[in-house]
Design a protein that fits this description.
The complex is a heterodimer.
Chain A: E1 7-12, E2 15-20, E3 24-25, H1 28-43, E4 49-53, E5 59-60, H2 62-77, E6 81-85, H3 89-97, E7 105-107, H4 110-117
Parallel strand pairs in A: 2-4, 3-5, 4-6, 6-7
Antiparallel strand pairs in A: 1-2
Helix pairs in contact in A: 1-2
Chain B: H1 2-13, E1 17-24, H2 31-43, H3 48-69, E2 77-84, E3 88-94, H4 121-128, E4 131-134, E5 140-146
Classes of the chains: A alpha/beta, B alpha+beta.
Chain lengths: 118, 149
């Protein structure tokens, strides 16, 4: 079983549900580590469907957005699906300003996201 | 009504806070000023959504100054000046780099750039702050947020 420092991963009906260990995703070194762990889900563990649950996340910087965009591209390239949920309003506004809400599939909560996967 | 008025008065009575600091050009150096800035915004009655906006703008601008301005040259500093009152938050950041032209930064919201992983910091700063001004050289930025009346 993979060891993660930045994320927690559980499996529900073949969907990897990812939570974030850091409340604030802004430190460059942490973001690099986060990116490596997220990409590993696709590249090493062949996770097809991924749900990112942002419940714990209070802040994220544009560098973190970059990792999410790259992850989304990797998931799509491997014919998987990526969704996000439980995003607080301030962070959703960041997605709106950057129009990433058009790129990412954003759902209200885990239940709604899981229904969308099935 | 009276209560809100009195809280407004007590907020504006609080003396404004200022800080001037030189940060080393190292990743993560923003933390040397950020926690105190966020505390002061809270003490001056700023709403959590505004504190989020100012935090994001300050973080992005300081990272840009360290990484793109000073190019992580440890011989160079990033100068930061903060001012916080109950109605105005202002952060000025100066690096020792060659400067940049903010109008040269491509629009990351264009369809063909939406999936490019970087280049969103400057846009977020402009959206979250009331006023953003650069000097002619482009190595100094003034960012100000004014509390809605």
């Amino acid at each position: 079983m993979a060891q993660y420092r930045r994320i927690g991963v559980t499996n529900n009906n073949d969907v990897a549900i990812v939570s974030f260990n850091d409340k604030k995703i802004l430190d460059e070194a942490s973001i690099q580590e986060l990116g490596a762990e997220l990409f590993g889900l696709v590249e090493q563990h062949n996770m097809g469907d991924i749900l990112l649950n942002f419940t714990n996340v209070e802040f994220l910087s544009s560098a973190a957005l970059g990792k999410l965009i790259t992850l989304d591209r990797k998931v799509k390239a491997s014919k998987g699906r990526m969704k996000m949920c439980n995003i607080r309003p301030e962070i959703f506004e960041v997605f709106q300003i950057t129009k990433l809400n058009k790129v990412f599939d954003i759902r209200k909560d885990e239940a709604e996201a899981m229904t969308a996967f099935s | 009504m009276t209560e809100s008025q009195s809280s407004q008065n007590s907020k504006s009575d609080k003396p404004s806070w200022q800080k001037s600091i030189d940060l080393p050009s190292e990743r993560g150096a923003s933390r040397l000023v950020m926690d105190e800035l966020l505390d002061k915004l809270g003490e001056h009655g700023w709403a959590s959504a505004d504190i989020f906006s100012i935090h994001l703008a300050a973080e992005e601008a300081i990272v840009n100054a360290i990484v793109h301005g000073n190019k992580l040259d440890t011989g160079k500093k990033v100068h930061v000046e903060c001012f916080v009152s109950s109605t105005v938050a202002r952060i000025e950041i100066t690096d020792e780099g060659d400067g940049f032209d903010p109008t040269d930064v491509p629009d990351c919201t264009q369809d063909d750039r939406l999936e490019v992983p970087n280049g969103r910091g400057v846009m977020l700063i402009h959206n979250f702050m009331t006023r953003v001004e650069y000097n002619e050289k482009g190595n100094h930025v003034l960012m100000e947020k004014v509390q809605d009346a």
